[in-house]
Amino acid sequence: MHKLLLDIPGCIETERLYIRCYKPGDGKWYFAMSQKNRKHLAQFESENVVMGVNSEEEAEILVRDLAAEWTARNCFFMGAFDKKTDEFIAQIYIGPVNWKIPEFQIGYFVDVDHEGQGYVTEAVKAALRFIFKYLKAHRVRLECDDTNVRSYRVAERCGMVREGYFRENKKNPDGSFSGTLHYGILSKELDALNYRA
Ligand SMILES: CC(C)(COP(=O)(O)OP(=O)(O)OC[C@H]1O[C@@H](n2cnc3c(N)ncnc32)[C@H](O)[C@@H]1OP(=O)(O)O)[C@@H](O)C(=O)NCCC(=O)NCCS
What we know:
The protein is of the alpha+beta class. About 30% of the residues lie in helices and about 30% in strands. It has one domain (about 10-190): 3-Layer(aba) Sandwich (Aminopeptidase). The chain has an 8-stranded mixed beta sheet with strand order 1-2-3-4-5-6-8-7, with helices on both faces. The structure holds coenzyme A (COA).
């Protein structure tokens, strides 16, 4: 099916979270969140769009741009928020790798004050359901640094399979090397897990 014909909900829910696309007006809190999380994201997410934000205006431009990208089905950035307090909890990124398969990649970070509470696992499970159900994916993949234990634990808790390992393929600012782990999950594998919607 053509990507523009897909009916994609702008918001999904889990037990504790609602997870939605960004919209005009999100710039103010997005800027504050970006500043708070700078140090937290420096090691593994230095390339994330959130790291390029230096003012409230830039944040507003970014969220409007991401909303437009969503509408065009170019990529899908979602914020996860606490259902009770509306506080920002995490960001999920979903990017098309190949619409013909279709294959997508997923990425994520949690707000520094909400790490270690299972929110990301909850959000990623929901995001995988979203990708397979609404984007009609055949497979989803994830790449992560081999020293990022917290990240690959999320992938494994969500049932993703370790498919590959590039050893020492990155040079870090301190001169050390780290490798890249490749995870993937197929539509039929999500069927076998008990968290399919
Ligand atoms: C990677 C990252 C998203 C992982 O976040 P996280 O908070 O560890 O992941 P979760 O929210 O799923 O929380 C899992 C932890 O909460 C605990 N937990 C508490 N309550 C829980 C619940 N109800 N359900 C599941 N886990 C729960 C788990 O035991 C686990 O702790 P452990 O790892 O010490 O065993 C986070 O460390 C991060 O943002 N890092 C910087 C950016 C980054 O590296 N992104 C990934 C790039 S590939």
